[in-house]
Design a protein that fits this description.
By secondary structure, the protein is α+β, with helices and mostly antiparallel strands. It is 18% helix and 41% strand.
Length: 96
């Protein structure tokens, strides 16, 4: 019976970890792994908003955003393990 109790407690711990942030969704883009970024571009029009990561091999990863958003951007150094903001840009609000 002790083995059964141990399995139950392990299952509960893994469930808690998995649901620690129930509103957060993470999506991975393995196609970008190892590629060298040539440039990043943000464009906004009255009905179309896009972030493009352009790679040196002439491929591009696009993020299209629906209207009704505010985009905040900053560039940070994490070398020490703590964030040090180097530059922050003004927020861009969608045209509604």
């Amino acid at each position: 019976m002790a083995a059964f109790q141990s399995k139950r407690s392990l299952h509960r711990k893994s469930t808690i970890k998995r649901h620690a942030h129930p509103l957060r969704k993470v999506v991975h883009f393995p196609q970008a792994k190892g590629k060298v970024v040539e440039g990043v571009e943000f464009s906004t029009y009255s009905d179309y908003h896009n972030i493009a990561l352009k790679f040196e091999d002439k491929t591009c990863l696009n993020f299209t955003i629906d209207t009704g958003f505010t985009l905040g951007s900053d560039y940070s150094d994490w070398k020490t393990g703590n964030q040090r903001v180097i530059r922050k840009w003004p927020a861009v609000r969608s045209a509604e």
